[in-house]
Design goal:
- The chain has helices spanning 3-17, 20-29, 36-43, 47-59, 79-95, and strands at residues 63-68, 71-76.
- By secondary structure, it is mostly helical.
- A two-stranded antiparallel ribbon has the order 1-2.
- The longest helix has 17 residues, at 79-95.
- It is globular and about 45 Å long.
- This is Winged helix-turn-helix transcriptional regulator.
- InterPro entries: ArsR-like_HTH, HTH_ArsR_DNA-bd_dom, HTH_Metal-responsive_Reg, WH-like_DNA-bd_sf, WH_DNA-bd_sf.
- It comes from Rhodococcus pseudokoreensis.
Amino acid sequence: MDTLMHSDALSRFGYALSDSTRTQILLSLRSGPGYPSDLAEKIGVSRQILSNHLSCLRGCGLVVAVPEGRRARYELADPRIGQALDDLIGLVLAVDPATCPDADVDNCC
């Protein structure tokens, strides 16, 4: 891969993480698939807002929608995304532990 492709991939990932709602969605999906209504309730946003953010995450290639009858289940597009999130949280905590004083990866920031 060339540097331009790497830059584009990291920019998409960074854009996804630049919004706290999208970050919460990605962190929620680390533990397994989720349904929009459940994710909206868990994160505390309206279904419309959640839908807009899921659309963005699909566009970034980070989540996929799996049709289930009239519903859709969302999951990370690749399990390595969850691992990358865990690694990134660990790195941030290693560089600046005060960022997340409790150091609880699941509830960080």
